[in-house]
UniProtKB/TrEMBL annotation:
Keywords of the record: Cytoplasm, DNA-binding, Iron, Metal-binding, Repressor, Transcription, Transcription regulation, Zinc
Cellular compartment(s): Cytoplasm
Protein name in the entry: Fur family transcriptional regulator
Family per record: Belongs to the Fur family.
PANTHER family reported in the protein's UniProt record: TRANSCRIPTIONAL REGULATOR FURA, ZINC UPTAKE REGULATION PROTEIN
Superkingdom field: Bacteria
Major subcellular location class: cytoplasm
Length: 142
């Protein structure tokens, strides 16, 4: 049994070729847009609709096998690194995204002073800045 099959079964999901293909694409790492995931899945399987990829991503996310992030101004992206409450740093120049480990490691890693009676279960932290490539480009432009 492949690693993907085991993962799917361990979460009670039926093993299908599209699910295995999407898991495989995500396991290569990174934060991928649906278009990119669909393109890579089609290199593995002939006919997969974009809707089918969305359905698979939804099922994997609900099962905790993928995580969906959507930084402001960027389309939704998916990654295989799920369940560890890590954060992201996003480049204002090119949209590049990198992982930042959470110092605390579990949700919510920030406590509001006053929660207005809410039971808080998550603090969504996004760091913004310039990636090394954009910094180099900026210095070259000076
Ligand atoms: Zn950049
Ligand atoms: Zn990430
Ligand atoms: Zn944190």
């Amino acid at each position: 049994m492949s690693g993907g099959e085991e993962l799917l079964r361990s979460r009670g999901l039926r093993v299908t070729r599209p699910r295995l293909a999407v898991l495989d694409v995500l396991s290569a790492g990174g934060h991928l847009e649906v278009d990119e995931i669909t393109r890579r899945v089609r290199e593995r399987l002939d006919s997969v609709s974009t809707q089918a990829v969305y359905d698979v991503l939804g099922a994997l996310s609900r099962a905790g096998l993928s995580r969906r992030i959507e930084p402001a101004g960027s389309p939704a992206r998916y990654e295989a690194r799920a369940g560890d409450n890590h954060h992201h740093v996003v480049c204002r120049g090119c949209g590049e995204i990198a992982d930042i480990d959470c110092a605390v490691g579990e949700k919510p890693c920030l406590d509001p002073n006053i929660a207005h009676g809410f039971e808080v279960d998550e603090a969504e932290v996004t760091f913004w800045g310039l990636c090394p490539t954009c910094q180099a480009r900026r210095s070259a432009d000076d």
